[in-house]
Amino acid sequence: MTDEGNARTEVSAYEAANGRTPALQTPLRQLYDEHAPLRQEMDAIFELAHGIEDAPLRQATARLAELAERVERFDANLHRHSSKEEDLLFPMMARYIGRDSGPIAVMEYEHDQAKQCLRLFKERREDGSQLTDPSTIAEMGRLASDAVVILMDHFCKEEHALFPMANTMLSRQELDWLEKEFERIDEQGGERA
Ligand SMILES: [Fe+2]
């Protein structure tokens, strides 16, 4: 059937772009691959968060409770991933291309922006007193959605610009060192020794 044929050959712009990405060295490939499960979590978060303020209050409150749990899990998983970039990859690349402007400055700024949204979300949740207040629900939905929007765009930049740049810029020794440090971070559940 023609329809089946079309469905099978249909490739998203994202997949098409990934298909053109040159083979990344192991530690960069690892960072790249860690984006996929984080993206899945972000899809679920966005679905819950976006337009939460339009739901009837009882439903919105239940949605917020689920959203808060998902955001907490995501925050921990994101930290495990982003600490590899912030503590190791970005400083290493900054030795070549600087840190005050250019790609590393942009990447760090976007990490900060996303973290700020997640931190404010967490503060509202921990406060707890306003979790049935429509304006707090709307604000928390906005904070979670904003974090997702920032990070979705950020991941694309890393995948299509930053990681390929690191792939050609970093030496074999630097890449080997990153690989070992990433292993150590993973063994220690996301923290550096
Ligand atoms: Fe990343």
From TrEMBL:
<feature type="region of interest" description="Disordered">
    <location>
        <begin position="1"/>
        <end position="22"/>
    </location>
</feature>
<protein>
    <submittedName>
        <fullName>Hemerythrin HHE cation binding domain-containing protein</fullName>
    </submittedName>
</protein>
<feature type="domain" description="Hemerythrin-like">
    <location>
        <begin position="26"/>
        <end position="166"/>
    </location>
</feature>
<feature type="coiled-coil region">
    <location>
        <begin position="57"/>
        <end position="84"/>
    </location>
</feature>
<dbReference type="InterPro" id="IPR012312">
    <property type="entry name" value="Hemerythrin-like"/>
</dbReference>
<keyword id="KW-0175">Coiled coil</keyword>
<dbReference type="GO" id="GO:0005886">
    <property type="term" value="C:plasma membrane"/>
</dbReference>
<dbReference type="Pfam" id="PF01814">
    <property type="entry name" value="Hemerythrin"/>
</dbReference>
